Amino acid sequence: MNLFRAFATVGGYTMLSRILGFVRDILIAGTLGAGPIADAFFVAFKLPNFFRRLFAEGAFNAGFVPLFSDLLATKGPGPARAFAEQALSVLLLTLFIFVTLAQITMPWVMQVLAPGFVGDPERFDLAVAFTRITFPYLLLISLVSLMGGVLNSLQRFAAVAATPVLLNICLIAAVTLLAPHMPSPGHALAWGVAAAGVAQLIWLSVACQKAGMGLTLPRPRLTPKVRELLRLILPAALGAGVVQVNLVIDIILASLLPQGSVSFLFYADRLNQLPIGVVGVAVGTAVLPLLSRLVAQKDQPGAVAALNRAIELTLFLALPAMFAFLVTADELILTLFQRGQFDVTAARATAFALTAYAVGLPGYVLVKVLTPAFFARRDTRTPVLVGIVAVVANLILNLILMQFMAHAGLALATAIAAWLNVSLLCWILYRRGDLAPDTRLIQRLGRALGAALAMAGGLWWLKSLLAAQFLGGETQRILALLALVVAGMLGFALAALILRAIRLDEIRTLLSRRR
Q1: pTM beyond 0.85, yes or no
Q2: Which of 190, 196, 263, 482 is the least buried, fewest Cβ under 10 Å from its Cβ?
Q3: Which of 47-61, 86-100, 388-402, 424-438 has the lowest average pLDDT?
Q4: Which of 417, 437, 457 marks a domain boundary?
Q5: Average pLDDT, rounded, for the chain
Q6: Domain end point (choices 407, 422, 437)
């Protein structure tokens, strides 16, 4: 399997999803602003979104893909399909019970998820109502994640990578078409989330059928393989999703801060998630089946080399994204979101949060690349222990930094915790001999950092020249932002070629492989 080809497939569809996500968020910002309805919806949306990232990008890939791939390679499609069907059946029953209990106890759940809303009856009641509508999405997206694991194991990445596009299409339709007919735009968006779960489940069911892996629902039984899957999934959920756990902690604490804080963090995180999704998730999704195969073949040098190339590719793309956010956070938020109910004060507060999140951007994406190195060896325990340390550190830093930086302190604490997580994972992999940075990796990282710094300097100079444009009308701001984006991309590409962070012959090779 060509790592770049798989990355390009997943990353390309993820980029499309993120672009539609920006359209969605621009519409939501203009309609809801950063008021009580927005805060309530973002809390209601955070929980299913948390599970989407946790299961689709974490635990199921960690536990299901190695087991399914092993059965597929050693015993053939029949036993692999039987295992997937039993896992699907057990998962459906378990989640149905869980969702039912959550619907009954939602007011108490909300007191834990958003304790700061308790003293604000409007936000609290809206959050309970919205979350009851969105919560069944947890069941649907978990089934979608299992089907996605089947398709990823078959190296059919396109259908799975395109699935988030359906969520954004449903939410765009909800805010533009359904909102005028609902009690509030927040109600329309909540129903849009629920509809997206149904659409995504149908989409991947059809994709599995076309791949020759259509799944049925047998009577739920805890077979030995299903028990092994559960043992892998439960710790992996925390290990792979520590960044998401930290973001949920941010939301809980943000509910205790002044009104609008939840919204500021949500909008900032949406931009921050673009490189995480396009780079971290794409490389992590592509590298897990590759590492699993190499480990099964006992090809340790090949597995180490594959991890080095994955880290190299990840940081080559993540470093310029980090510096671009640090330099242009104000311009990005003002241009993308400042309109309608989203005023300049909200834009400045959101930009402050984006700057803080951006400090940890390489850390967020590296976590998604390093954890597959453990999962491929069926070690889900170690990332859990590291994840617990990072979560505790995040909570302590949250409580300290929010006193001085309000909502941005929560974002900065998440960034620092991500770097701690990466540092510990790297150290453990290095001690085990599963991570051995070669000369190419070390040289390329230094050159990529130099190219990213050169790009940042150019962006700083250009944005000072365009300062008046960003104070003008909407069209002026959009054109000025486009100029910054194009200049940043071209500037980094040129600097990377001059510093030899990447070579022209490598680009030609990658493109020829892609074709």
Answers
A1: no
A2: 482
A3: 47-61
A4: 437
A5: 83
A6: 437
